[in-house]
Amino acid sequence: MRTMKIGAALFAMLWLGGQAIASDEVNERLPKQGHEAGEAAYKANCAACHQPDGKGLPGAFPPLAKSDYLNSRSGKEIAAHVLQGITGTMTVNGETYNNVMPAQSHLSDADIAAIINYVYSSWHNSGKSITAEDVGAQRQALAITSDKSQGEMHPGTSRGMENYQGAPSVAGSHGVEMVINPDAPPISKVEYKEATQIFFERCAGCHGVLRKGATGKPLTPDITRAKGTEYLKALINFGSPGGMPNWGSSGDLSAEQVDMMARFLQHDPPAPPEWGMPEMMASWKEFIPLDKRPTKKENDFNIDNFFAVTLRDSGEIALIDGDSKKIINIIKTGYAVHISRLS
Question: How many Cβ atoms from other residues are within 10 Å of residue 57's Cβ?
Answer without folding.
Answer: 21
